[in-house]
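Anyone up for a design puzzle?
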């Protein structure tokens, strides 16, 4: 007898919980979850970590969310362009990075990444000029930008020699306020 009562009680609880009103809701009230509050997590930081982990598509989504929260500033434009570069979408990456260089002409990572794209496309002379701008904007502080400029100039001077090696492509991405982290291009 106890088992029958427990079984019927359990059925009653399940049916009550499964009804549209639940346990406490009145029949005339519409139930919908609330809006999620503003996230404290910076999409750029998440995107940078995903880029470091080789998850470029997820990084692009994180950068896009960051752009929705912060607006299209030089950081988000450059980050979206860099993620597209890693995904091999050179045309899209070039458009984003050109917008970033227009937004802030003194932002070295955007210039450097644009130079990497131009090297990939075989536009060596423009790439060398872009790397010069990156080097000047960085005041010569980055060895990586200097190496990219050297490679571009070597390819410009000796177009017949294949000086550009696949393992020597570098992509410079800005993290935080002034730290630069190298990610190799695939």
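Challenge accepted. My sequence:
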């Amino acid at each position: 007898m106890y088992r029958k009562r427990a079984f019927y009680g359990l059925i009653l609880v399940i049916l009550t919980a499964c009804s549209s009103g639940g346990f406490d809701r009145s029949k005339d009230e519409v139930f919908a979850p609330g809006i999620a509050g503003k996230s404290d997590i910076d999409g750029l930081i998440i995107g940078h970590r995903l880029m470091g982990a080789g998850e470029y598509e997820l990084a692009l989504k994180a950068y896009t969310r960051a752009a929705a929260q912060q607006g299209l500033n030089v950081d988000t434009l450059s980050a979206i362009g860099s993620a597209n570069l890693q995904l091999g979408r050179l045309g899209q990456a070039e458009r984003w990075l050109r917008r970033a260089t227009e937004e802030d002409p003194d932002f070295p990572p955007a210039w450097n990444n644009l130079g990497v794209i131009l090297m990939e496309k075989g536009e060596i002379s423009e790439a060398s000029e872009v790397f010069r701008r990156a080097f000047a904007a960085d005041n010569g502080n980055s060895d990586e930008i200097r190496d990219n400029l050297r490679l571009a100039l070597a390819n410009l001077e000796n177009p017949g020699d294949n000086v550009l090696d696949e393992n020597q492509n570098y992509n410079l991405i800005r993290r935080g306020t002034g730290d630069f982290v190298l990610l190799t291009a695939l």
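A detail worth pointing out: The two ends are 71 Å apart (CA to CA).
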